Amino acid sequence: MSSSVSAVPAASADRAACHFGTALEFETDCADVFGAMSSAQQDFVLLDVRSPELFAQGHVPGAINLPQRKIVDVKLRDYPDATLFVVYCAGPHCNGAHRGAYRLAKLGRPVKLMVGGVTGWVDEGFALARADTA
């Protein structure tokens, strides 16, 4: 008798590699963002797509606040077209980062989502900045 885990057989290794590789084209995690920013290898712009009020209460250090509804061409004109944007919101219970990523993609911009958002950042033990200390 199979468990509920194995009741549906796992994909082949080739299909699994394709699936998970594809997922990494769309996502990054808090530890990778922290590592890149800490080692001066930041080759992306980090966007906090929450409201200015939530941003002020605590955000990832170095993030730029651009609420997802305000992601429009004119706000991005200072960034070269090939700029990679990494977006985040409150956490897995929020789809603001997905909405922001969608808007960026529709504008033809490279984008990844930082899975976990602020919740994931704090869960990893990383500090948040406040608007008055950023």
Question: How would you portray this structure in words?
Answer:
It is a single chain. Strand 2, helix 3 (52-57) and strand 3 (64-65) form a beta-alpha-beta unit. It is globular, with a radius of gyration of 17 Å. Helices cover 38% and strands 13% of the residues. Strands 1-5-4-2-3 form a five-stranded parallel β-sheet. The protein is α/β, with parallel strands linked by helices and 134 residues long. The chain has six helices and five strands.
Task: State the main characteristics.
134 residues; 5 strands; alpha/beta; 6 helices
Q: Helix and strand layout, with pairings?
A:
Layout: H1 13-26, E1 27-29, H2 30-38, E2 45-48, H3 52-57, E3 64-65, H4 73-76, E4 85-88, H5 96-106, E5 111-115, H6 117-123
Parallel strand pairs: 1-5, 2-3, 2-4, 4-5
**Estimated share of beta-strand residues:** 5-15%
Task: Return the structural class.
Answer: alpha/beta
Write out the strand line-up for the largest beta sheet, numbering strands in chain order: 1-5-4-2-3
- Average pLDDT level: 95
The tally of strands reads 5
Helix content: 25-40%
Helical segment count: 6
Evaluate the radius of gyration: 17 Å
Distance between the termini: 56 Å
Characterize the overall form: globular
**Main β-sheet, in a few words?**
5 strands, parallel
Order of helices and strands: HEHEHEHEHEH
Give the uncertain stretches in residue-range form.
none
